[in-house]
Amino acid sequence: MDFELTKDQQDIRKAAREFAEGEFPEIAQECDQEEKYPRDLVTKAAELGFIGVNLPEEYGGSGYGYLEKCLVTEELWRVDPGLGSVVIAATFGADMVELYGTEEQKKKYLVPLTKGEAVMGSAITEPDAGSDVSAITTTARRDGTDYLINGNKMFITNGTVASYFNVICLTDPDNTSRHRRHSVILVESDRKGFEANKLPHKLGIRASDTAELYFKDVRVPQENLIGEEGMGFYQFMEFFNRTRIHVGSEGVGIAQGAMEKAITYAKNRKQFGQTLSSFQAIQFKIAEMATRIQAARNLVYEAACKADRGELDHKLTAMAKWFAGETGVRVAEEAVQIHGGYGYMGEYDVERFYRDAKIIEIYEGTKEIEKIIIGRALLGR
Ligand SMILES: Cc1cc2nc3c(=O)[nH]c(=O)nc-3n(C[C@H](O)[C@H](O)[C@H](O)COP(=O)(O)OP(=O)(O)OC[C@H]3O[C@@H](n4cnc5c(N)ncnc54)[C@H](O)[C@@H]3O)c2cc1C
After folding, report:
1. Whole-model pTM?
2. Is CATH 3.10.50.40 correct for 234-379?
């Protein structure tokens, strides 16, 4: 297996690093503390080609693959996970439109995203349906040539800032298969009966917007159906098999950033007349961090390269997402430990990284769900 990045890939990685290092540090703390969504950052990122990295060029994307999007994601999350999330999640749902949308839908919904004119979300989770996607109860009832949507969605990224959402709705509640009852319907946020309430006081990625959505008799034309009626559950599983690769690279990025901060601190802080870096216990921590990061990165890159070759491997993707998420959490925790009491204080970035890391083990499939996927694949169930 070839682990070398091409010149083009190295350039993309370098450009993403320069963008993040240039734009993020100045606003990172403020956006975290004030839970502020920096909309301008999305516009800037779009101008520089960091929005829609893996979307086709005909819709304004860069036309790259999963690996290139991983490189960008990793670099942005390395500098600040909250702001990395703002940029990377600005198109959360675009892959669904690209995979299952009609040509007209792709032009209508993907082009504004890549221009930075619109932000998108995907609304699956409900107050009583999280890991069990098949249990969602938001309904879309046919009414003439429209759907009437009723229900609510929980924890939706970009909830108060997105122009439109992929919403998974119950369209065939009587179907005997729990997995053939749902459809994906694109809902614009300016439709009558739609409401979004921001959910404040998150543990981490506080620059990212998270909201509860309410749909009260929201009328949407049937042409907003994405893909096939009754196939929404399968469409979302296929969607997550792709997006989870990038969530894995979020874990790699956050771990890399935390480790670099720990190394800098360990080289400068002196106790017992020596720098922390001279203690073997600290060297072991750094060695463990670096090894875990390398293993996580290799898993993520392999999953991405396979996806780019058209061999999407859902077991490998689940391994990458779970392991990289755990790596992010463990490495951020050890980075706080190396900073001692200072690491516990808000003025040091590792405190924020530690809070930010946890989300990777929760969203787009919890670590337990990822292990279920891996176990079932291995046991043939
Ligand atoms: C900041 C943030 C952003 C989010 N963004 C979005 C978004 O944009 N769109 C969206 O739709 N959702 C979003 N989510 C929701 C997220 O995907 C869900 O929180 C997640 O899927 C888990 O669902 P739940 O919270 O209902 O937990 P539950 O499903 O209730 O799970 C609770 C615990 O039980 C465990 N568990 C559940 N079932 C099993 C099982 N069969 N075996 C073993 N353990 C199990 C879980 O792993 C977890 O540890 C977001 C969440 C957060 C916090």
Report:
1. 0.97
2. no
